[in-house]
């Protein structure tokens, strides 16, 4: 699917395609392999880049923030994920907010989610949560989301220095497409 999206972006005139993944399997291997395979080999010689900073590095940075502020570590469905969804859930339909106060799963130990390990026991709630989401807030979700955007923008500017305007925002009309599993692009 990533290849097809990148090919279509190039056929529609984009000169730069940025592959961004934000969740789960296939990262970074699949995204990186697709970017290397397609870079310079698409219509019009379009460039294809993989922006890897938005996932593990940004997530680790947010986990460090959580730890520094006394929040518990997690791996799945915990404070990070739930808070981010609360922030993005403008219609209040994605997060069952009435259940957040009881949203605790198996405990996780480690320094960051990157090295964290879930501790499953005989009394596991088996609810899919690895960590504790009870203190989730939209405000924490905004902080997490903003960190991911900041990490991505910094990396994209480093990949495309001719578009950065010396640190200014990417100009409109830059012919750059950014995509994950569905295209979100601007020219």
Briefly characterize the structure:
This protein has 187 residues and is of the alpha/beta class. Helix content is 35%, strand content 12%. The protein folds into two domains: 92 residues, no CATH class; 90 residues, no CATH class.
Task: Name its key features.
187 residues; alpha/beta; 2 domains; 4-stranded mixed beta sheet; two-stranded antiparallel ribbon; 5 helices; elongated; disordered C terminus
In words, what does this structure look like?
- This protein is α/β, with parallel strands linked by helices.
- The protein has two domains: 2-55 and 149-186, no CATH class; 56-145, no CATH class.
- It has five helices and six strands.
- The chain has helices at 2-11, 29-38, 56-68, 79-88, 138-159, and strands at residues 16-20, 47-51, 108-109, 117-118, 176-179, 183-186.
- The strands form two sheets. A four-stranded mixed beta sheet has the order 2-1-5-6, with helices on both faces. It has a two-stranded antiparallel ribbon with strand order 3-4.
- The longest helix is centred in the last third of the chain and has 22 residues, at 138-159.
């Amino acid at each position: 699917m990533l290849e097809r999206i990148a090919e279509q972006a190039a056929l529609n005139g984009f000169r730069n395609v940025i592959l961004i993944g934000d969740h789960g399997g296939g990262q970074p291997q699949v995204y990186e392999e697709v970017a290397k395979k397609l870079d310079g080999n698409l219509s019009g010689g379009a460039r294809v880049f993989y922006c890897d900073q938005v996932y593990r590095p940004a997530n680790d940075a947010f986990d460090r923030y959580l730890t520094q502020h006394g929040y518990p570590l997690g791996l799945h469905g915990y404070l990070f994920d739930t808070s981010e969804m609360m922030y993005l859930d403008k219609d209040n339909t994605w997060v069952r907010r009435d259940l957040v106060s009881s949203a605790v799963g198996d405990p996780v130990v480690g320094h960051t989610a990157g090295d964290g390990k879930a501790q499953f026991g005989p009394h596991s709630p088996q609810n899919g949560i690895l960590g504790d989401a009870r203190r989730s807030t939209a405000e924490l979700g905004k902080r997490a989301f903003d960190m991911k955007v900041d990490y991505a923008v910094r990396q994209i500017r480093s990949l495309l220095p001719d578009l950065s305007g010396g640190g200014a925002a990417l100009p409109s009309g830059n012919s750059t497409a950014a995509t994950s599993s569905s295209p979100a692009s601007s020219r």
